[in-house]
Amino acid sequence: MRGASLSKNHEQWLRALHRKKHRREEKCFLAEGFNSLGAALESHLYPLRELIVDDGHKDAVMEVAPRGLPVLICSNKTLSRISTEETPQGVIAVCSERAFSLGEIEVSAPCTILYLDRISDPGNLGTILRTAAWFGVRRVFLSSSCVDPFSTKVIRSSAGMIFFVELYRSVSGDEVFRFAEEKKFRTIAAIPFGGDSLRRLGRASRNIILLGHEREGLSEEIRTRADLAVSIPGAGTAESLNVAVAASLLLYEISGEI
Amino acid sequence: MRGASLSKNHEQWLRALHRKKHRREEKCFLAEGFNSLGAALESHLYPLRELIVDDGHKDAVMEVAPRGLPVLICSNKTLSRISTEETPQGVIAVCSERAFSLGEIEVSAPCTILYLDRISDPGNLGTILRTAAWFGVRRVFLSSSCVDPFSTKVIRSSAGMIFFVELYRSVSGDEVFRFAEEKKFRTIAAIPFGGDSLRRLGRASRNIILLGHEREGLSEEIRTRADLAVSIPGAGTAESLNVAVAASLLLYEISGEI
Q1: In whole angstroms, what is the distance from residue B190 CA to residue B198 CA?
Q2: First to last CA, chain A
Q3: For burial by CB atoms within 10 Å, which of A46, A95, B125, B126 has the most?
Q4: CB-CB neighbours of B181 under 10 Å
Q5: Model confidence over A3-56: pLDDT tens digits?
Q6: What separation in angstroms does the CA of B138 have from each of A37, A206, B81, B128, B256?
Q7: Which residues does chain B have within 8 Å of residue A234's beta carbon, measured at their own beta carbons?
Q8: Which of B43, B199, B234 sits opposite A135 (nearest CB)?
Q9: Average of per-residue pLDDT values in chain A
Q10: Domain total of chain B
Q11: Which residues of chain B does A127 touch, with a Cβ-Cβ cutoff of 8 Å?
Q12: Which regions in chain A score pLDDT beneath 50?
């Protein structure tokens, strides 16, 4: 319904979407704020199901909401209860999760894909998605124990850019390497030390960048099966870089090559 | 005292150090975990004042603690109350804040400095410090309304690398440009769009990279006074990059130039 008021029951259901289990069951997630809304309206990868808006923002939201999309109105106070932000932005989009599968991918050259092996911090995952979108990377594979990409923290850190990235979930190492072989992708493992210098990375038009867990890095299996391992040359005292920083440097270098 | 037990009063004093105001008054801050301790022991930029350790880690800490440094012992439960970590790591270092001033800087060429204009997120600041340390950048200037660099969130995000970076606080735009002129630094403003491509940044051995607030960017004054403005070429849909990602790309490009 357009402009109906939000029921108490529905509020409960929305708040339960803060829990991963409930998101999984309902196959949907919450995205807060106008940035996310704009991205969701533009991209269509994760379709909008309904919008929740407070009184103060209903006119602005009604203006952009497509015909037929339910818009539910509530008080500022109610919205704060549904929101996970310290200062809620007045609108929350309910969007559909969607499962992409490797079999459907049609590859155009050049193409870069990220494979994230057990990334555990939502801020890191969100920042990686934002950076991927910046460099035009449309596909990100996630291993089975990555943090849930549809948590509000990930979406916030992605600055809404999650809506422009196809997320492939629970992708095993085996599947990645089989995909890479079939579709002729080069696989590049990012490791903190001992790899080839990122600055001397040769060209290839199809690349899969492999990045691992914040402390533990890539699993042994993935590291050894990759076509090459690269490290970021440093001059200083730090032992490692943040994984989102490492991802961005690889994406920058590779997007300059092709 | 070495190996004395922690008093209730002292616990109160330590917990008050979570507040910026108290840190400022006492001129010290808390750094948690063995990474930070190792960095603090190695660097000496922010001298250790005392260590707080729980029963389970006292032997490990006594082994590395310099003679004369007070080590206070407490229960695991007490340490959890002082800690801001979800899973405290058994040791907390109390370190001295130190005020570095621009007048003392002796510049060796090549040299890169960061100037951070109103960076507000502690995770971003910490990640920038960690990346700076990786690329051998030893000096970071902070504008007056940057987030407090000695909050535990910043220190955690820096992975202890804050101990290798001289922090110059409340540095105004005027001071930066006067310093740059005197010491013959090139000033480079990072802007989301419309600057020269980062990939075509010419060489200079002395650079100051200017980075601004997460949403608002650099102040007008700083942007217009900089020698040049650069943007990171992107192919995608994102409107901007995370500021710590932008910082890392500039540092990577500049450290390859010199």
Answers
A1: 9
A2: 48
A3: B125
A4: 10
A5: 789 999 999 999 999 999 999 999 999 999 999 999 999 998 999 999 999 999
A6: 41, 37, 33, 12, 17
A7: 134-136, 255
A8: B234
A9: 94
A10: 2
A11: 242, 244-245
A12: 258
Last residue of a domain, one of B63, B96, B129: B96
Cβ–Cβ under 8 Å, residues A112 and A251:
yes
Q: Looking at the partner chain, which of A123, A130, A235 has a beta carbon nearest the beta carbon of B136?
A: A235
**CATH code, domain carrying B14:** 3.30.1330.30
User: Which tokens sit at B101?
Assistant: 């001033």
Q: Which two tokens stand for residue A257?
A: 């090559």
Question: B244: which chain A residues are within 8 Å (Cβ-Cβ)?
Answer: 127, 242, 244-245
Q: What is the dihedral of CA B61, B65, B68, B73, to 10 degrees?
A: -20
- Domain final position from B80, B96, B112: B96
User: Residue A231 to residues A114, A237, A244, B93, B218: CA-CA distances in angstroms?
Assistant: 16, 15, 14, 31, 31
B257 band by pLDDT with thresholds 50, 70 and 90: low
Rounded to whole angstroms, the Cα distance separating B121 from B148 reads 10
Round to whole Å and give the CA distance between B258 and B256. Answer: 6
Q: How far is A127 from chain B (nearest CA, A)?
A: 7
Q: Measure the CA–CA gap between A14 and A22, rounded to whole angstroms.
A: 10
The C-alpha atoms of residue A131 and residue A243 are separated, in whole angstroms, by: 12
The region, left, alpha or beta by phi > 0 then psi within -120 to 50, assigned to residue B126 is alpha
> Cβ of B130 and A242 within 8 Å?
yes
Alpha helices in chain A (DSSP H): 8-16, 20-26, 33-43, 58-64, 76-82, 122-134, 152-157, 173-183, 220-225, 243-257
List CB contacts (< 8 A) between B252 and chain A: 232, 249, 252
Structural domain including B186 reads 102-257
B78 and B144 part of one domain: no
Residue B1 confidence (pLDDT) above 60? no
